[in-house]
Write a structure and sequence with these properties.
The chain is α/β, with parallel strands linked by helices. Strand 12, helix 7 and strand 13 form a beta-alpha-beta unit. Helix 2 packs across helix 3, helix 2 packs across helix 8 and helix 5 packs across helix 6. The protein is globular. The two termini are about 15 Å apart. The relative contact order is 0.16. It binds NADPH dihydro-nicotinamide-adenine-dinucleotide phosphate.
């Protein structure tokens, strides 16, 4: 049996493309006492991985050139020399971008579909879903009746933010990068309003039109011009949950624009601006899991996935997601259960 892996070939300076990745084929590894052999079923491609391609110190270490990339993976135990795991168990962990990998079991969590696809553990029932919940409820201190704005609103995190806000009885408007995505937000996800940030004449004026009383909670996934426009439209005592700034991820440090402008607005309006990393909120995970499953059962949570096929498709799925080609959560199906 052979094991295809995706390795980092080089570090991008600016935009990432397929040349920054390479694929190799190795024999499937053997395991020692205490280890398990895992067959990858699904792997997650996430925006934060772009930061790990840079050789910079961060909350998570950089990928190494010539070594496999790694990230959220749902896998099946195919051989076990660890008493805690049996052949056939499905697990979730931070594992290599490979068809097979070896683990000591540390950091692995057994997962069950529970009536939903196993891939949901990489999205709605996993890190992106929890990010939406933590950012909106704990960081953004969102409450019934608030006016909520979310950017990258049709993506893995943003689509859940909007639905949580809607379920909590808030007014919610979002932005996305195509008319098709905007229609999905309004027609399927129940956003009160949405706009295509690429085609409106003025993002600033469009946000002002959506929020005549100002934004109480801005869930920021993008940065750049949209973030600046949100800053000018915040309500008194508004909260900004700074989740991500994907508009900056493929800009080299030298080319990074100055900004955002208008920060003085945050002083006069007593606005709280707080960044957060979801892994620092582990206590929220059981709360989100229970709430999300309840909403799924009641038909109050809709979820969309873009599925790329096969490990070799992972690099282009990753680059495509950074360019907005995904609809909902981008995953890669590596093998059948
Ligand atoms: P998405 O599923 O939303 O995919 C990324 C989307 O970003 C694209 O589909 C695209 O949508 C949008 N995008 C890309 N470039 C730009 C740009 N220049 N301007 C505006 N939009 C752009 O990804 P996730 O939901 O996984 O992540 C969303 C954000 O949340 C990211 O910034 C990510 O880093 C952050 N994040 C933060 C976490 C934390 O703990 N703080 C945890 C998880 C995610 P479109 O077509 O609409 O442009």
């Amino acid at each position: 049996m052979q094991n295809k892996r995706i390795l980092l070939a080089g570090r991008p300076d600016g935009w990432v493309d397929d040349t920054h990745f390479t694929e190799d084929t190795q024999p499937v590894p053997t395991i020692s006492d205490g280890e398990v052999l895992l067959k990858t079923l699904y792997l997650s491609v996430d925006p934060y991985m772009r930061g790990r391609m840079n050789d910079t110190k961060s909350y998570i270490p950089p990928f190494q050139i010539g070594q496999p990339l790694s990230g959220g993976v749902v896998a099946q135990v195919v051989e076990s020399k660890n008493p805690k795991f049996e052949v056939g168990d499905t697990v979730m962990g931070l594992l290599d971008w490979a068809q097979y990998s070896v683990s000591t079991g540390e950091g692995l969590r057994k997962v069950h579909g529970g009536g939903y696809p196993l891939s949901y553990h990489l999205g709605l029932l996993g890190m992106p879903g929890l990010t939406a919940y933590v950012g909106l409820v704990e960081v953004g201190r969102c409450k019934e009746g608030d006016n909520v704005f979310v950017t990258a609103a049709s993506g893995a995190v943003g689509s859940v933010v909007g639905q949580i806000a809607r379920n909590m009885g808030c007014y919610v408007a979002g932005s996305a990068g195509s008319d098709e995505k905007v229609a999905h937000l309004k027609d399927t996800l129940g956003f009160n309003d949405a706009f295509n940030y690429k085609t409106v004449d003025s993002v600033h004026k469009t946000i002002a039109g959506c929020f005549p009383k100002g934004i109480d909670v801005a869930f920021e996934n993008v940065g750049g011009a949209q973030f600046e426009a949100a800053i000018w439209n915040m309500a008194l005592f508004g909260r900004i949950a700074l989740c991500g700034m994907i508009a900056d991820y493929n800009i080299s440090r030298e080319d990074m624009p100055v900004g955002p402008r208008g920060m003085t607005n945050l002083i006069g309006r007593n606005v709280t601006l707080q960044g957060f990393i979801v892994s620092n909120y582990p206590d929220a995970a059981p709360k989100w899991d229970a709430q999300c499953r309840a909403w799924l059962a009641e038909g109050k949570m809709t979820y969309q996935e873009s599925v790329a096929d096969g490990i070799s498709a992972a690099p282009s799925a990753f680059v495509g997601m950074l360019k907005g080609q995904n609809h909902g959560k981008q995953i890669v199906k590596v093998s059948d259960e």
